[in-house]
Amino acid sequence: MHLGSYQSESRYYLHVQLVGIEPPIWRKMVVPGAISLHTLHKMLQVVMGWENAHLYVFRLIINKKTTVYGLPDPEWEDTGIRIRDSRRTKLDATVWAEWLTLTYEYDLGDSWMHQVTIEKIKHLEDEHVNEDAFWMTPRCLAGERACPPEDAGGIGGYADLLEALQHPKHPEYTRLRQWAGASYDPELFSVQQANSALAILE
Asked: How far apart are CA 91 and CA 31, in angstroms?
């Protein structure tokens, strides 16, 4: 009955946009507040179209103070950055107001920065609400354009890829088309596919 669903008293309506890319690559989604930031990471991977092949961090800014969340990893030890465990951090215990600034960085080499805007937080507080009402399935509501392929080389590499793919006579066209895959279309995004993948997310 509740496959792919979560029990939560809150719903977070999020707008997620890749920073520094025009036309914008963005998604709107609604997720339960009771999930961990690590689970939110997995949901973002699905709706954006990434392959979960690299490290990530969330940065939350409150009163000009930044707290960083991610998975503990030896790579962090040399950086001096304190990373809080995203698996032990609930979304609604951390991001408790719409005005908070949350960014999500994926692949610390290519450094894909996502601005996460909290558009609305909806709470189910009525004690007379049927218990089933607390179950919710995360959903992608809207979006535009495919995310870049993995390991594209950041914003600059992605721009070079798009330039080559638009011109079949470009000297790099054949190589980059083979690398990106015959089916890769930078303009293509399917809400239905994103929601099908969210429904089976573990």
From this structure: 10
